[in-house]
């Protein structure tokens, strides 16, 4: 009787354990680095007593305003529909994004928030570019002034 080796059935399987290890390492890296990701332009708004809220300015609209921010170094950022702030935009990129949103939702308010320490010329350049782009009305953002006794 001649020896015949056992015939094994060939199976095609993928060992996923190394992929799970890599995925867990990536998850840990993202969890550790997430707090360091910038969420927008850091703007320290000037304070005023007579400012209106966005709801007072446009009570008929439920859409959130388009927020344009200029930080103290003149860097521009824009937030549309309360989405994450896109920052470090050029003036042309900012205007293009605002025009695209206004083409889709013409009644959306446009608000410009400038850091209290930014040069006035940066705010004026932004307002001028928005005006040339056809944005009819632009509001200026401020923080409410703390009243004595509060």
TrEMBL record:
Top-rank lineage group of the source organism: Bacteria
Principal place of residence: membrane
GO aspect biological process, one term: protein transport
Protein's UniProt keywords contain Membrane: yes
Keyword line: Cell cycle, Cell division, Cell inner membrane, Cell membrane, Membrane, Transmembrane, Transmembrane helix
GO annotation, cellular component aspect: plasma membrane
InterPro entries: ExbD, Tol-Pal_TolR
Presence of the UniProt keyword Cell membrane in the record: yes
Pfam families given in the database record: ExbD
Membrane protein topology class: Single-pass membrane protein
TM segment ranges: 16-37
Subcellular location: Cell inner membrane; Cell membrane
GO molecular function terms attached to this record: transmembrane transporter activity
Function: Part of the Tol-Pal system, which plays a role in outer membrane invagination during cell division and is important for maintaining outer membrane integrity.
Family: Belongs to the ExbD/TolR family.
Oligomeric and partner information: The Tol-Pal system is composed of five core proteins: the inner membrane proteins TolA, TolQ and TolR, the periplasmic protein TolB and the outer membrane protein Pal. They form a network linking the inner and outer membranes and the peptidoglycan layer.
Protein name: Tol-Pal system protein TolR
UniProt organism field: Photobacterium carnosum
Gene: tolR
